[in-house]
Amino acid sequence: MIAESRLYKVLRYIVLIMALIFVVIPLIPLIFLAFKTGNEFRSTSYFQPPNNWFNLYNFAYALGVGKLFEALWTTLLILVVSLFFSINFACMVSFVTERFAFKGRKLVMLLYAMTMFIPVVTTQVVVFRIIWTLGLVNKIGSLMLLYSGTSIVDIYIVHNLLKTIPKDLDEAGLLDGCNYFRVYFSIILPLLKPAIVTMAVIKGIGLYNDFYVPNLYLIRGSQTLTLALYRFFAGLSTPFEVVSAAVLMATIPVIILFLFAQRYIYNGIAGAVKS
């Protein structure tokens, strides 16, 4: 039994190390290239470190010519507004469907679940027509509106956390004179912090990396970071070392966010998969 336990540990660490290698290897040349000059890029290996780690020309060029700083602020604005509404909708729907028994409750959950089986591409003609009628094409309001919806995955994450919160807290709040709105905002919502952070990071990263929707609705004018990156290095004239610097700058915010919120993400995902 001890030998099996040790073998399991060895295999587990081997798998984790291999996975880490596959993740880290593409990042190493990206970091090296971001600090190299054009001559270094043409004359050195991808895995050879740059001669000068303080060479920031590529970053300055990407920010100035590629307008990445403006695109980053636009993306953050869209994320903040969209996540605010999306997470609030998920928490409210979960609170109502988990705490109250009413006719149509199962139907509501079924309709949310069915959206997982509908390919997004098949609905884009109708959705685009609606956005066009509202006059939101080429405006960031179109993305905020489309991103503000919630999903069955978000609802399940909140549902499983709500099951661990005793209903006695709701009843105690009602006995103290609170209505259900006060119970939700003052008692329940603060206890949903792990689920809220989990949804914010997972959904936020997905929206941050999304290219399809911004490319469809922001034909000109304001652009998100992914759209700015695409339009910046779509031309063959953009130096590859500058492209590496732009991609590295776009990656850093996501890495920082994950490092600070990883504890909540693990707890939230663990709660979502509990039976």
What does the model show?
The chain is mainly alpha-helical and 275 residues long. The chain has a domain at 68-229 and 253-272: MetI-like (MetI-like fold, Orthogonal Bundle). Helix content is 73%, strand content 0%. It has 15 helices and no strands. Helix 5 (68-99) runs parallel beside helix 8. The relative contact order is 0.14. Mean pLDDT is 82; it is low at 271-275.
Q: At the third CATH level, what is the topology name of the domain at 68-229 and 253-272?
A: MetI-like fold
Q: Assign the CATH superfamily of the domain at 68-229 and 253-272.
A: MetI-like
Which series of helices and strands comes N to C?
HHHHHHHHHHHHHHH
Q: Strand percentage, roughly?
A: under 5%
- Mean pLDDT across residues: 82
Q: Any idea of the CATH class of the domain at 68-229 and 253-272?
A: Mainly Alpha
The first-to-last residue Cα distance is 29 Å
Largest sheet: none
Q: What is the architecture of the domain at 68-229 and 253-272 at the second tier of CATH?
A: Orthogonal Bundle
Q: What percent of residues adopt helix (DSSP H or I)?
A: over 70%
User: Can you count the beta strands?
Assistant: 0
Detail the poorly predicted runs.
271-275
- Class by helix and strand content? mainly alpha
Shape: globular
Q: Count of DSSP helices? A: 15
